[in-house]
Specification:
Layout lengths: L3 H10 L5 E4 L10 H5 L6 E8 L5 E6 L6 H7 L6 E2 L2 H8 L16 E5 L7 E5 L5 E6 H8 L2 E3 L24
Parallel strand pairs: 2-6, 3-5, 5-8
Antiparallel strand pairs: 1-7, 2-3, 2-4, 6-7
Length: 174
């Protein structure tokens, strides 16, 4: 497995300023970081890998939200995208699926980033090891990834509780 050394090398080779923060204990998933560090969930970056006919796509979103597969496909200009399994994500990136950093992967992927992440100056992401956080400015993350910016987290549809439920008609007996 790859780790924070590969993330650091990737960023140094591209002259991207960054810092690492070692947590007191390893975390299982990146979305736990905001609670442990007392951060707003909107500034913690989650990285999820998608399969597409055009190849793998890495979607960067706030850890508190999930990327929409159709939105990822639109941003990457492909006909469809499907979330990759944990095993395939680990094989493609070299990192644990729930702790994928935004850069330094074993195999390159197209990268798309949710536009809301650019509202924050500083972002926190997986540093490659489960106990290490990458601290990076959003502008520097954009330089490091050359990501396509798009809304990736579509709002959930509101459910109208007062609307009558649709009924399926039973097929007529022959």
């Amino acid at each position: 497995m790859r780790g924070s050394v590969e993330v650091h090398r990737y960023l140094v080779e591209r002259s991207i300023p960054h810092e690492f923060y070692r947590l007191e204990r390893p975390l299982r998933r990146i979305d736990e970081a905001s609670a442990v560090l007392g951060l707003q969930p909107e500034i913690v970056v989650s990285a999820e890998l998608f399969d597409s006919p055009a190849g793998p796509i890495l979607a960067l979103t706030p850890a508190s939200r999930c990327a929409s597969a159709p939105a990822v496909a639109r941003a990457a200009d492909t006909i469809r995208a499907r979330p990759m399994s944990a095993a395939r994500t680990a094989a493609a990136t070299g990192y644990f699926a729930d702790w994928v950093p935004p850069v330094g992967h074993e195999r390159p992927a197209r990268i798309v980033i949710d536009s809301s992440l650019l509202d924050s100056d500083v972002l926190y992401a997986s540093g490659g090891d489960t106990g290490v956080m990458l601290v990076i400015r959003s502008a520097d993350l954009m330089r490091a990834t050359a990501a396509v910016v798009a809304p990736l987290c579509e709002p959930e549809e509101a459910v109208d509780l007062e609307a009558p439920a649709e009924r399926l008609e039973a097929p007529a007996a022959s």
